[in-house]
Amino acid sequence: MTEGGVYPHRFQGQGPENCKINDMEPKIEHSEMSAPRQIHPVDPVFTDWTVQRQASVERALECLIDGCGAQPPRLLDAMRYAALDGGKRIRPLLVYAAGELSGASDPALDLAASAVELVHAYSLVHDDLPCMDNDVLRRGKPTVHVAYGEATAMLVGDGLQSLAFAALAQSVDRSVSASAVVKMVAELAAAAGAHGMVGGQALDLSAVGHTLDREALEAMHRAKTGAMLRASVRLGWLTGPQAADSDGAFIPSELDHYANLVGLAFQVIDDVLDVESDTQTLGKTAGKDSEHNKPTFVSLLGLEASRTLAITLRDEAVTALSPWGDRSRRLIDLADRIIKRRA
Ligand code: IPE
Ligand code: IPE
Ligand code: MG
Ligand code: MG
Ligand code: MG
């Protein structure tokens, strides 16, 4: 770590390690007629793994945010409020699980995991703004604009997004090749940007009060949510040495297929939970989609067919991992968690 770099207020070597993206995804092809398979019971080893990995990304995020030189103190405070101590950390967990498959080191994965979570946290802050979904509750707390005001909330999002790219750039200091890091930066930019999450959010806003057909709804969900989940898997994989061959960094199509499917399944379940769950369990206001006239999988297919679709997507995602056998256990567990979650 060099002075004036990502952590200008830390001494050399006091980065997170010591503190203890591309073209749009291809159309998903899936058969809704296939019978859902048995979802595995929760494995206690998986639970321990998630707790450890969630703690790792929490430490890394805290070091990144505290070390980024945010000023004035109120901005730093608000960035911490937005990104720390909350959320399921599903995207970081996907980074770690995919990285374990490609032999990535833990310190390098901490940075990639932090990068996707920082972009995600920023997207939530902006998603909740009065000009977007106008939400007052997120992760069980008042939203950032409620706690700090709209202008600060907007700047928090901007600051978290920049920090995400700064974090990724630091991967070269953790034995990730410069060419892989460049690819990772491009992956994250594409997933976060106008062809990914931001474009999906724009589609979401323009769809208010309209009925979308299945194809349009799926395209919106793949962009606004699926792109960042897909990028999480891809970044995790790219972090490891096995992602490189003689032509440079590559991503196996089977892994990408898995990533696409779980990305869509995640938002299908988000739509379901908005109807089925309650505000306290969710930590965000339930029932917002119908209140705001948003087209969702539930409004299009109904609750039961939406859940069945999510299970089918999960089954196909798990099948795509078969080349790795039991080595992909964590990714399978995460696909299960994504569809079984209650919040
Ligand atoms: C919520 O994401 C927003 C969507 C993209 C659907 P999560 O459900 O992952 O939210 P946190 O990170 O756990 O709070
Ligand atoms: C948000 O989708 C997707 C983002 C890019 C943040 P939603 O608007 O459905 O997410 P929630 O339900 O507010 O978490
Ligand atoms: Mg929204
Ligand atoms: Mg919202
Ligand atoms: Mg939602």
Report on the structure:
There is one protein chain. This protein has 343 residues and is an all-alpha fold. The strands form two sheets. The protein has a two-stranded antiparallel sheet with strand order 1-2. It has a two-stranded antiparallel sheet with strand order 3-4. A hairpin with a 2-residue loop joins strand 1 and strand 2. Helix content is 62%, strand content 2%. Residues 127, 133, 204 line the site of one magnesium ion (MG).
Which SSEs are present, and which pair or pack?
Layout: H1 44-66, H2 73-83, H3 90-101, H4 106-127, E1 137-138, E2 141-142, H5 144-148, H6 150-169, H7 178-192, H8 197-206, H9 214-239, E3 244-245, E4 248-249, H10 253-276, H11 279-282, H12 288-291, H13 297-301, H14 303-320, H15 329-340
Antiparallel strand pairs: 1-2, 3-4
Helix pairs in contact: 1-2, 1-4, 2-6, 3-4, 3-9, 3-15, 4-6, 4-9, 7-9, 8-9, 9-10, 10-14, 14-15
The chain binds 3-methylbut-3-enyl trihydrogen diphosphate (2 copies) and magnesium ion (3 copies).
The total strand number stands at 4
Poorly predicted runs of 5 or more residues: 1-36
| Helix-strand makeup class | mainly alpha
Note the overall shape: globular
Terminal Cα span = 38 Å
The proportion of strand residues reads under 5%
Outline the biggest β-sheet: 2 strands, antiparallel
Roughly how much helix do the residues carry, as a percent range?
55-70%
Bound molecules: 3-methylbut-3-enyl trihydrogen diphosphate, magnesium ion
The order of strands across the largest sheet is 1-2
What radius of gyration results from the CA coordinates?
Answer: 19 Å
Q: Kindly state the mean pLDDT as a whole number? A: 90
Element string (H = helix, E = strand): HHHHEEHHHHHEEHHHHHH
User: Total number of helical segments?
Assistant: 15
